[in-house]
């Protein structure tokens, strides 16, 4: 099965809210979005895709993979990667007092799930040896780093030959939700992307592009839809088969170290 077929299969599966995680974050309003069924589902099907896609492409089982969660934040990505059998997940984040850094916010998931987060002292240089990881994952991180190209080169360095970089939640230039946010004064994302920019970054950082796609139309972070699984299926359909693809929210990709 090729990587696109694996992606489509993982994305079609509905994952219910994780009750163990819900208990961890129960008294933390800053983490409440993870109890929103559509948001919880997205994180889980992306983590499932990393697990299944990596196993298939690298011909390894999930337990033997060494994965770097680059920009751990609240810790939910590391938690879900481990839930989907990637037990050897290393977590790291920039050591700054920022609201989007592990070290600048509450972190009940990290505390209660016993997740160790390596502090990053430099905006893009990583404290790991060459060829240390099978996989690196980015969930909404690349658009915030000071230098995305240098970060991509550094990710390439710490990957083994043939290693994989999964990059999710990259905000699209033509995404309608980003247009609304920016017109409302919210410039949270430092940069916006499209497939052309992604391909240029991949080429300059010694990766080979394996798959790239657009994702998400509905404002899942704002609503708890009454029929969540139906809404998610409609969302995936709109992006894949209709002109609404042109204003979808994210561009995402999988790349392999040459």
Detailed description of the structure:
By secondary structure, this protein is an alpha/beta fold. It has one domain: Vaccinia Virus protein VP39 (Rossmann fold, 3-Layer(aba) Sandwich). It contains 9 helices and 7 strands. The protein has helices spanning about 5-10, 20-25, 35-60, 75-85, 110, 150-160, 175-185, 195-205, 230-240; strands spanning about 65-70, 90-95, 115-120, 135-140, 160-170, 205-215, 250-255. The chain has a 7-stranded mixed β-sheet with strand order 3-2-1-4-5-7-6, sandwiched between helices. α4 links the parallel β1 (about 65-70) and β2 (about 90-95). α1 packs antiparallel against α3 (about 35-60) and α3 (about 35-60) crosses α4. The longest helix has 22 residues, at about 35-60. It starts with a helix and ends with a strand.
Which characteristics define this entry?
about 260 residues, alpha/beta, Rossmann fold, seven-stranded mixed sheet, 9 helices, about 35% helix
Count, helices:
9
CATH architecture call: 3-Layer(aba) Sandwich
Rounded radius of gyration (Å)? 17 Å
Q: What letter string, H or E per element, gives the SSE order?
A: HHHEHEHEEHEHHEHE
Low-pLDDT segments? none
Q: What's the CATH first level?
A: Alpha Beta
Terminal CA distance reads 21 Å
Largest sheet strand order? 3-2-1-4-5-7-6
Largest sheet: 7 strands, mixed
What's the β-strand tally?
Answer: 7
């Amino acid at each position: 099965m090729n990587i696109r077929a694996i992606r489509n299969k993982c994305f079609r599966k509905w994952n219910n809210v994780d009750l163990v995680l819900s208990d961890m974050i129960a008294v933390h309003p800053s983490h409440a979005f993870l109890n929103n069924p559509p948001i919880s589902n997205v994180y889980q099907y992306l983590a499932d895709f990393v697990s299944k896609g990596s196993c298939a492409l690298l011909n390894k089982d999930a337990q033997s993979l060494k994965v770097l969660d680059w920009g751990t934040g609240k810790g939910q990505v590391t938690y879900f990667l481990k839930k989907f059998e990637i037990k050897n997940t290393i977590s790291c984040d920039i050591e700054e007092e920022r609201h989007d850094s592990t070290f600048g916010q509450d972190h009940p998931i990290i505390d209660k799930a016993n997740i160790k987060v390596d502090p990053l002292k430099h905006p893009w240089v990583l404290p790991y040896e060459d060829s240390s990881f099978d996989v690196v994952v980015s969930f909404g991180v690349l658009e915030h780093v000071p230098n995305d190209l240098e970060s991509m080169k550094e990710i390439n360095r710490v990957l083994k030959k043939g290693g994989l970089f999964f990059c999710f939640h990259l905000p699209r230039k033509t995404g309608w939700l980003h247009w609304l946010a920016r017109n409302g004064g919210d410039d949270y994302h430092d940069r916006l992307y499209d497939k052309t920019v992604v391909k240029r970054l991949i080429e300059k950082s010694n990766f080979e592009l394996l798959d790239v796609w657009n994702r998400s139309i509905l404002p899942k972070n704002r609503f708890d839809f009454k029929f969540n699984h139906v809404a998610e299926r409609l969302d995936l359909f709109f992006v894949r088969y209709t002109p609404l693809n042109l204003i979808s929210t994210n561009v995402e990709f999988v790349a392999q170290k040459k």
